[in-house]
Amino acid sequence: MCSNQVSLQDEQCKYYAYMFYQAVRDQEPVWKLEEMRTMEYFHLEEDASLRCYSPSDALMYAVVHNHLRYAQYLLSHYAEEALKVPGIKFCCCPPSAPHLALAVTYDRRDILIMIIKVTHELPSLQSYINRASCFHLSDGKTPLHLACELLSAETVLILLGNGASPKIMDRKGETPLDVILEQLWSSKVNVESKKLCLDYLLLFSSSLNFKMREMLRDNPGFWGPLLGEDKFNYLVGKRPARLYLAAMQRILKCLQPAHFPQSIQELPIPHALKPLPGKKTSKMTASEHN
């Protein structure tokens, strides 16, 4: 194939790709997007083969531009295929969860919940919520690591309630708990959001194993006043968890992730003590008076 033909096909490929991207961005109706998605265009590989956008490619665009109806359509009609690693333009190392990571990063909470619901329904995707993201771009962080980095407390709770593990380490050997503690150590900005993320992580962590423990032990004058003596001593292993925390850890461990948050709503405890999405403050500290 001559260079002029290759150049022309390359331009066509870019043009069709931009048209589809723009259509998703402009919230075009689902039927129109599906017509465009399934149109074959030149995708320049060694054989200059024809291809169309996969449901996975399309879902990435839907997440970026928060196109709820299109995301819902793709997940309901192509569930497993839509959550495969995308084929083009995205750096994703299998087996990763790029759509979930992107939904966390862009704070697309409605789409995040749609994706999680699908993963509960498909046996092949039971571990999807704990898959690490691309090692090239984010050091193998899980969606929970990313939510902690962004201090998105509600997203942290949604992920934990739906089965995200707070014990998984990224490539640097850090857990989500380390991510929050490092942020508390390095900056006094958004302290309340950091503490709320920390409280949620502790609720879903029946045992503690994290990299920052020595840092806490070496700096009690900093951490004690910041966290409160009870929480500080629990984190460094000097005291057991307070009654409320220990009880909730046991209860939450028994609940099925697929039933979150309904299973927590149904608990026979005061509503103020239930860790539910949408709450502005954590009620863990309410138990300090016990």
What does this structure look like?
It is a single chain. This protein is mostly helical and 290 residues long. It folds into two domains: 15-38 and 51-133; 141-259, Serine Threonine Protein Phosphatase 5, Tetratricopeptide repeat. Helices cover 54% and strands 1% of the residues. A two-stranded antiparallel ribbon has the order 1-2. Helix 4 (68-82) runs parallel beside helix 6 (109-121). Keywords: ANK repeat, Repeat.
Q: Tell me the radius of gyration.
A: 22 Å
Percent range of helical residues: 40-55%
Number of domains: 2
Proportion of residues in extended strands: under 5%
Q: Kindly report the CATH topology of the largest domain.
A: Serine Threonine Protein Phosphatase 5, Tetratricopeptide repeat
Number of helices: 16
Tell me what the CATH architecture of the largest domain is: Alpha Horseshoe
Strand segment count? 2
CATH class of the largest domain: Mainly Alpha
Q: Could you say which structural class the secondary elements and strand pairing correspond to?
A: mainly alpha
Spatial shape? elongated
Q: What is the first-to-last residue Cα distance?
A: 78 Å
The mean pLDDT is 87
Describe the biggest sheet? 2 strands, antiparallel
Q: Which consecutive residue ranges, at least 5 long each, have pLDDT under 50?
A: 42-48, 281-290
Multimerization state? single chain
User: Which series of helices and strands comes N to C?
Assistant: HHEEHHHHHHHHHHHHHH
| Lateral strand order in the biggest sheet | 1-2
Keywords: ANK repeat, Repeat
Region (Disordered): 271-290
Pfam family, one: Ank
ANK repeats: 139-171
